[in-house]
Amino acid sequence: MPDVRMRRKAFRVVLLLLCAFVSGARSLRAQDPPPRIPWFVVDAHATVPRFPSNDTALADSRDLEASELPGRGWGAQVGLHIYPLRWRVITFGVGGEVAVGRATKTPNVDTTVALRSAREVFRTIAPQLSFNFGNGNGWSYLSGGLGRSTWAIVPEGQENHPPDSEPLKTINYGGGARWFIKPRLAFSFDVRFYAINPGTPFGVLPGSPRTTLMAIGAGVSVK
What integer best gives the mean pLDDT of the chain? Predict the structure, then answer.
């Protein structure tokens, strides 16, 4: 069920972005020759990743109680994108992204069940292909890529657990926009989903389930 709800959210986000793309394409046709999308852009975003909470299958893979999972956290996202080709209103981009997210949880001492503190760290790196709509003053995009990630969920007193360092195949997809407030500096945002492959069972512990994480980011872009 969590993955189904996440896919529905992804579909709604894509629909909203497509509406923005149509509006951007109309304004592009109405202008005198606008500047093209630049040859490259570097993004730096602060992010809010939404980690699963109360997910029994995920907790079982780390010998945790579901209520010990940290949930929402903070992170960062850095990307480099190059735009070598334009066809009609679409500019094609290639590049890559490095992202990290972190969350911690300290249980309430008043609970009747003894719970441990835990920290969660997600790291990923991946190439990306993007479809961009707009011009050099501002544009929106859809992008995706296939890479690897590590996903550590570490309860207090349980270090160096094999699942925490296992590389997992991860598909990332999403979209966003950039608005240049100065000739080389833009405000930008990104909504991204990370579809993570199931993990490998270790010993008596089951592998982590197939999971989709969502991260919302905002920051600056430099061209």
Answer: 86
**Strands in the chain per DSSP E:** 40-50, 74-87, 90-105, 118-135, 138-155, 168-180, 185-196, 211-222
Instruction: Give how far Cα 144 sits from Cα of 66, 109, 147, 163, 204, Å.
Output: 31, 42, 10, 25, 35
> Residue 88, Cβ neighbours under 10 Å: how many?
6
- From the number of C-beta atoms within 10 Å of its C-beta (0-12, 13-18, 19+), residue 36 rates as exposed
User: Measured in whole angstroms, how far is the alpha carbon of residue 155 from the centre of its chain?
Assistant: 24
Q: What is the mean pLDDT of residues 79-99?
A: 95
Overall pTM surpassing 0.85 (yes/no): no
Alpha carbon distances (Å) from 115 to 67, 111, 191: 8, 8, 33
Going by C-beta distance under 8 Å and a sequence separation of 6 or more, which residues neighbour residue 23? none
pLDDT higher than threshold 50 for residue 26: no
Smallest Cα–Cα separation from 145: which of 102, 184, 199, 194?
194
**How would residue 105 be classed by pLDDT, with cut points 50, 70 and 90?**
confident
| pLDDT > 50? residue 179 | yes
Sketch out the chain's domains with CATH numbers: 2-222 (2.40.160.20)
DSSP state of 55: -
CA–CA gap between residue 209 and residue 29 (Å, rounded):
47
| Residue 219, helix vs strand vs coil | strand
Q: Which of 46, 59, 30 is nearest to 134 (CA)?
A: 30
* pLDDT at 201 > cutoff 90: yes
